[in-house]
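Lecture notes, structural biology module. Today: joint structure prediction for complexes of two components.
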Amino acid sequence: MSKFVYLFKEANQSMRNLLGGKGANLGEMTSLGLPIPQGFTVSTEACTRYYEDGKKINKDIEKQIFEALAETEKIVNKKFGDNSNPFLVSVRSGARASMPGMMDTILNLGLNDEAVVGLAKQTDNERFAYDSYRRFITMFSDVVMEINKSNFEKIFDAKKEAKGIELDTDLTAEDLKDIVEAFKVKYKELKGQPFPQDPKEQLILAVEAVFRSWDNPRAQYYRRMNNIPYEWGTAVNVQSMVFGNMGDTSGTGVAFTRNPSNGEKALYGEYLFNAQGEDVVAGIRTPKPISELEKDNPAIYKQFLEISSKLENHYRDMQDLEFTIERGELFILQTRNGKRTAQAALKIAIDMVEEGLLTEKEAILKVEPSQLDTLLHPQFDPEALAKAEVISTGLNASPGAATGKVAFTAERATEMAANGDQVILVREETSPEDIEGMAVAQGVLTARGGMTSHAAVVARGMGTCCVAGAHEVRVNEEELFFTVNGKKYKEGDYISLDGTTGKIYGEKVKTIEATVSGDFAKLMSWADKHRALKVRTNADNKRDASQAYEFGAEGIGLCRTEHMFFEGTRIKAVREMIVAKTVEEREKALAKLLPMQRQDFIELYEAMQGHPVTIRYLDPPLHEFLPTDKEDIIDLAKDLGITFDELNATINELHETNPMLGHRGVRLSITYPEIAVMQTRAVIEAAIEVNKKGLNVVPEIMIPLVGELKELKYIKERVVKTADEIIKAAGVELKYSVGTMIEIPRACLTAEEIAKEAEFFSFGTNDLTQMGFGFSRDDAGKFLADYYKKNIFNEDPFAHVDQRGIGRLMQMAVEDGRKSRPDIKLGICGEHGGDPRSVEFCHNIGLTYVSCSPFRVPIARLAAAQANIKNPRK
Amino acid sequence: MSKFVYLFKEANQSMRNLLGGKGANLGEMTSLGLPIPQGFTVSTEACTRYYEDGKKINKDIEKQIFEALAETEKIVNKKFGDNSNPFLVSVRSGARASMPGMMDTILNLGLNDEAVVGLAKQTDNERFAYDSYRRFITMFSDVVMEINKSNFEKIFDAKKEAKGIELDTDLTAEDLKDIVEAFKVKYKELKGQPFPQDPKEQLILAVEAVFRSWDNPRAQYYRRMNNIPYEWGTAVNVQSMVFGNMGDTSGTGVAFTRNPSNGEKALYGEYLFNAQGEDVVAGIRTPKPISELEKDNPAIYKQFLEISSKLENHYRDMQDLEFTIERGELFILQTRNGKRTAQAALKIAIDMVEEGLLTEKEAILKVEPSQLDTLLHPQFDPEALAKAEVISTGLNASPGAATGKVAFTAERATEMAANGDQVILVREETSPEDIEGMAVAQGVLTARGGMTSHAAVVARGMGTCCVAGAHEVRVNEEELFFTVNGKKYKEGDYISLDGTTGKIYGEKVKTIEATVSGDFAKLMSWADKHRALKVRTNADNKRDASQAYEFGAEGIGLCRTEHMFFEGTRIKAVREMIVAKTVEEREKALAKLLPMQRQDFIELYEAMQGHPVTIRYLDPPLHEFLPTDKEDIIDLAKDLGITFDELNATINELHETNPMLGHRGVRLSITYPEIAVMQTRAVIEAAIEVNKKGLNVVPEIMIPLVGELKELKYIKERVVKTADEIIKAAGVELKYSVGTMIEIPRACLTAEEIAKEAEFFSFGTNDLTQMGFGFSRDDAGKFLADYYKKNIFNEDPFAHVDQRGIGRLMQMAVEDGRKSRPDIKLGICGEHGGDPRSVEFCHNIGLTYVSCSPFRVPIARLAAAQANIKNPRK
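The predicted structure, tokenised, for the full assembly:
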């Protein structure tokens, strides 16, 4: 039988995975000689066993728990259920990662009809003893037995009413005894058996309840939001109770060793005299700032300062402590690395280097890359936010805060913005035609689509706040309103979106602008010094490219040329091209696009100042450029000078059952090589033009959706022929390269062949994930909800590179690609290029660069540095 | 410089890949001492170089050609362009695989104004010489210079008219001289330069023309139909001319060493005296049966008999010979293994074993497995077929011949069939609702969809003839007619389909029934003795299962349970299940399906006589069970007792952008585990029932579309719990297993994990191909046409397992799956299970069985035997 239960004195910091953060730290603090109420931890492995055994604690684990209990009784010299010196414990969850408030806690466990007498004797305070007992019964019944608290609250309130009193504290010991009796009667009535009097039985039931709480809906949600695997499980800490509510020499509080809002180096926190932890949290009494403890009890304050400083130095990180003072004696209940704002994280990391507490590399590892987002986007004013009502929640698709008037079409959004209004664009889902409306909007809300839907991807690229896939929102695009949970919002009504949390507010909420401090620049400069991966950006226009350049992008890793095709005059030429019946007609339409496309590239090259620019050739299925609405089709037919039937026939012909797996990417170029030829002209002519002005652009031409060497070869031949002719005619020297996106599983499987023609690979992990999993990102949202609920997935499979499956394909492609072209340039340009965990993976498999949306560039820089510090590249 | 040109005397049989079949055999026959007009072969590698060099023959190859020419001149003792003893040659293509009629031939090359004089002298026949010259000018201009023949025919006919004669043979030598002059003038007029007089220039131009013809549209088409890679290229054979048209002691003919129609052992063929090969083929004069040669020229006949017998013994296969007799001297122009009917193939193989010419294993290798198809399906009467007009061609989706009246809906097809009509069901594309109509139809024609479309897959399963994806056919399903190339066909009009060739005939064509001979049974028994792979069938009903059992299936590898859900009373319960709002409602609807589903399985188990039966749980997206038409929705809503809006909302909710990558397979079971529970009840209860009657069924439960271990685990837990409860309650012993389809790329990538729960893997290579390539089989047809035209693909990527890409995934899954479960059962149940090339691959990677549609079972048995003979399994 393995060991499932550990006394605090057997534990230490390194046992976090086994004992959870709380348990490991209680062990560590015990060995540091700090005043810790003793106890033991039931391991996370016991939790896993509990679930494997069909939600039962097996007899061996129970035995180990009772042995640890007996040991602890000896240490604290108290006895479970004793009527003179009873041993009471708290039972609390403690997972590997901190999950504040997500799981359950039971205090005062061990009380029964005997022990309560003992507690009264021991504390010489009968009222306190019975108050503790009634609290315990309520908490145990609620958390362990799933009896609604209101059953007990009614009895309690009835007693107060009967006695004509208002404050709980006015109840006497006798009143509380009556209440306890009434509670026990109620309990029996509801459960059919008496309230358990055996403290050991209470303990096992409580441990089971904590294990069970690992899988409650709010824990599931928290895990998914924070990428915590279900498999980790939670540990359970059984700790002897100390009481902060034993009179005026007792108290309880929480404190941070530095200010978690701004990072200033000063003890920060609050405490309450004569109170238990729950009182501080519940907010019934207003706690005092921790600084006042110095006046109230200078000795304890001094001791606390020493301990907190010792812990910060020991853990080399800002600590978040819970403490209790029991009759003048200080106890530390837990310590953990404190949560902090991005601003504080930067300041603390930098200060600690200056203080000599951390090296630069260590400081880099202390800042969570994804936190940087909040520094770059507007946020809500916290005060205003506290008052605002959440009407629904969607996916936190693109961070930031936005407030504005609702618009339901891109056209209306543009008009309203032109009138000086702040606008929130609300759509069932967006399509490329909505780009302009998205660009002028403060935020975008969609009812359908996931984290990599069109709305999400484009909004992130623009740095625009977006809440996507808000399933409760029902959009009526014809009558211009949406409803959510029975409420109706019309065009012009105010709503607000929090793209960082996914919350939707039905009103105007004040926002505050983003501010970037000097600390940010300093940390970024350190990060750049320590990373091996290059960081590029995905950008299709001057604005995004310049923004990304400011954020430190070292080139463009993905320019989606189709985004350039939707603007007014262009879309017409694109549509002429689509309805063309001959190559000549098609070339005529393409000739109209050439000068515009060339100008686009000139602007991008200039924004990137000579850094590499990767241009992906036309990718989406052509039907995306055509209208679907009958009236729009009639208008367009007129415009194009063809009949409705003709145009409609073209649209029907382009219809696909599964457009995701249809006629797009390189497949378009194979049918219409003249498109690739036009794009090549634009790429090369633009490069020649800017290089004349002194830049040294080396364009990278990227062919999408290749799954077979010959596809690439066919197009590359035409690209090279076109490019070389232009270069020769211009009489200049110009280098360029031709590569491919690796986004089809078969491309990974045949990478050795493809690398014979491809001068670079850029992983398109969105599509690779879609095809590798067989999940359409437009559709999967609906059934993935069941996957989360049933713990089949812990998280959105599109959120991070799936290392076990899709990552294996990537690794094959990297290894095989290098076999035929050892110096092949390897990048990633899917959404994952800005996800810290995926960036680490890309570093580890040896990519050359990652490319991400402009606002994620700093995140990627930091993540790349962390990856290289953890696993330095030779 | 490599060697690109080989004299016949340098070549032999083993050089087929390099020199093509014709070249290698001419070499072999030369070394056997047979009378072969000498010459040389330009290799297939030269063809590859020709294309790589931008369709030019490089100087080195040209030099080698001229050297070989000089050598040959020495051997035959003639001179190119000589005015007394000119050397003339034929220039013919010859690829690795025989491609009769697909590429071009040029005869009499070497004639010019000088050589024609020489030829006249040499043959003492001026008329013959000029007739040869005018033929050469026409053929060279047509084949090499792309000048339409009609230009010359007009001149020729004008001369005849001017002379008032009818027969070509009435033209005199002088007339022909005039004609030659006029031809040369015409040539210069069209080409701007004189007809090439340099025989060496003629030769190089001709060789280039043959290389060019490798990529002409009819060669492309032939290659695709016969799986011949573009990369192989063709060789060119330059052979000295011999003339069968030099008078009555000359002649030409073709012969088979056995009868290619029925396999009888007797020389079979025909010949013509005083004629060239083209006359035999053109059919202007009626040739005599070869047997008459014995009377006409017993010595030559005897010599020919000896040679043909020698060649058959040498090649150990039936030979197809071309010969020419020049002034009493016999020459063999080529030999090759003869094409033959399936019936002949069987007889020849078996006879040759009896004759001691072949071993059993060798005989097995001589029969093309895919040929067996024609033995099992009705065929057209060849005479009737010769007269019928082809109105269009689609994909040869399911073999056989069918004739009947057109019906446009499954309902009408059923009604018409009930009235005793033979019916052809014509649809834009079929859906599962059409099953009944397909079952009663003689044949199915669809305008859309590929080789693995619904229509194709289901028709093959039923053994029903099907032509799919006939793009020229425009179906008007509302007004009940279709048009094709301007012609209109209404309900009730007769059409005929050839599912083996894809041809569509606009009339009734007489069919003849399939006949299976004793030879078939004998060869199959040999095949069974020599194979290692088991062969199962894909079948969903008693009829198909019994059919497959007769054809030798050793179990069912795939029962698609959804096919059982479309019948009248069932579809209603299925729909009730879909619109159910609660688990209870859903279970109520499922309870109605249970007895029917149980009965289905009883029938299948019984049909399979205790052989294993693999049952795949519900797979398709639920929207496939709901109507799309407004009126049908109204009707159904009434039927289900809900409002139109409610039903419509459900339908809209089920709509998916990419249903292929949507909510189906195991994903359905995760959302609605009660479906899997009901199916488990049916599977297990049915097995208990039939086992009571003495069978020993071990059901195999197959979960589709698994991509992650936990998906399978979640469902397996419920399946096992349900099954074990039923078995326990019944008080019986029953074994069963639970496995999964491997059809998602990620399943292959994580096979080691999945095998921890899966007791068997069955590769679903249709979906694996779709996702691995990123090709939707419903949509790819449209753009794949361009892929064939541009030689990016040689063949439909769904036709055979793609060994370089998808096959690599399969191999990973096999190896990794065995790591965690060494005795895992491995099968394939995609369409590829009946494709000989894919069967060989499955054998080579170590699968346990293949499963295919009933009519492909014999094909798979033979292919499995061939695979094991070539690469014996230890």
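Point to remember: The mean pLDDT of chain B is 92.
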